[in-house]
Every structure is written in C-alpha cells, then in structure tokens.
C-alpha cells in the first residue's frame, strides 16, 4: 500500500471542521481541568483536547514541559469531560508513555519531521498502532521531508494518518510567526487528497489577532479542521502566551467559521469560463517573462564586456519602488508584488551569471 491508496476513514467520525483545542503546554492539573471545563461549557464543538507534555524549545534553560505527569492530567480530562486527547511525541520514550496513557491522537512536531532518523524512531515505536497519527510540516519548506515522514509511518503499518500545516520558518520579517507558504501545503493536498489536512493558525500567526482569518482561509481551500491553542488564562501561559485564546473566544471563533464543499456541481460553466480566461492570461505572463529574461541575457553580455558587477543596488531600488507604487495604484497586495519582483530579479541575476561564466 502507498499513501495515495489510504482511505483515512478516521476523519469521518468527526463533524466538519474537526477542531483540536487546548493549551500549548500542560502546566498543572488545575489548569488542564479548568480549561477543559470551560471549553465544554462554552458550547464549542471541540471533540479533541490537546496539550503539550514535552516541549522542544529553541534554546536551553526554558520551560520544556512537565513530562509524564501531564499524561495523567490528560487522562483526567478525558474521564471527566469526554474529550479525546492529543499530544506531541518526539522520541520512542514519548510514544511508549503516550500509548500507556491511552492518548488518542499523537502528532509529530515540525522540529522532528525535519529529521528522518527521529521520524523513523517514532514510526518504529508506533508500529502497527491504530491510533491517529498527525505529522506537522517540517520547519523548513521541504515538501519531500513532509511526504517522507508519512511514508516512514506507513512503512510500519500505521494507516490512520493526517497532516498539520503550521507554517514554515523564515529569516524575513513578516506578519506571521511562521509564514504559511500555502502553495507547499496545497501541493501536498493536490498530491494526496485522501490524507486529511488540519491547519494550525496558532503557530502560523504567533498572535491571537490573525487566528480566524488563517483558519477560514484554510477551510476555504478544503482543509478538514484546525488545531487552536486555548488556555484558561492565556496571558499567564508558560509558553506561547501571545497566540493562545480563552475557551469563550474559541467558541465565538468556531461559530463564525464556515466549511466549504469541494464539489463544483452546478457551477461548472461559470468556473470553466473564468478558468479559460485565467489560462490565457497565464500564457501571456509566461511570454512576457520570457521576453524579459532574453533582455537580461543582453544586459549580462554588456556587463561582461565592460567588467561590470551584476547586482546594481540603485537599479534594484528603482525596481522595488516602482513595483510598490504600482501595487498601490492597482489595489494589489504590496507584499505579493514585492515577492513577485524579487523572484523575477533573482532569476535575472541567475541568467546574467550564466552569461558571465560562459566564455
């Protein structure tokens, strides 16, 4: 069996969208039970309660989770309030402890997904489990690593699989903590449509203000649900306080979320008409870009002949200023236009480099 043959019928037991909510970290039994009680009393449709038991931190000497004792608190949440439970596992010992505590859903975090050795260790520890196992995207934008992690799990007979899109690290300063890079996630979804995909707006945003819009955007393109960090007192949380919300805010957010159907029956004609125009415009864009790059070759030849550096800061400044001005005039997103022109400029530099190197 391969990933494309998986039926993943586990998702059908949940209402759409599937909401997984709970604190970033388990801090105390009281905190866990109060959070669970308030989620239950809020009326929010939340079938799964999550909490971090072990917390991989970027730097040492920070709070790294309460450890195994927190699994007992998760168990009490299940017994007292009827939630299924979920937590992250990062090695074989975590897996063993979580299975012994009868945690229902396990997920592999972004820092673990990036390491094939770690994923293999976890997969072997989970061998043959019927538990639901979710895999977060790796911290870096590498689709092959994400797919490879799932293949390693499937290789150990683990078939109840899903993925979590939590965004990707970037050195650039953006409005996101982890930039979504939607296209990578959509490429995965297009390749493996039967594997449920859940968005993690908490880690994408890194704050509370953008959670709804990111979650709704994910549902708009057919995601199956969202994992949302929820705490009974977010401002006092021991980790990631800025991105956690109260149970009552969670309930309000869920009430506003709208799921979308993936079928287009009845709209085929209108959709096809628009798509045909888009295809024509796309071809025109490619033709224009081809012409632009041919001019870059000529510029590269002039620079080579006159021993000029390829990168000209003043020219790049002019291009970016013009691009942002046109973005404003046309009502387009400035960040998108800047990214587009940066990509075009980088390709132009590559072409000029090729001209310079070839004698």
UniProtKB/TrEMBL annotation:
The Chorismate mutase domain, residue ranges: 265-356
Enzyme Commission code(s) on record: 5.4.99.5
EC supergroup of this enzyme: isomerase
Record carries keyword Manganese: no
Claim: Glycosyltransferase is one of the keywords in the record: no
GO process terms (BP): chorismate metabolic process
Record-level Gene Ontology MF annotations: chorismate mutase activity; transferase activity
InterPro entries, alphabetized: Aldolase_TIM, Chorismate_II_sf, Class-I_DAHP_synthase, CM_dom_sf, CM_II_prokaryot, DAHP1/KDSA
UniProt keyword terms in alphabetical order: Transferase
PANTHER family in UniProt: PHOSPHO-2-DEHYDRO-3-DEOXYHEPTONATE ALDOLASE, PROTEIN AROA(G)
Protein name: chorismate mutase
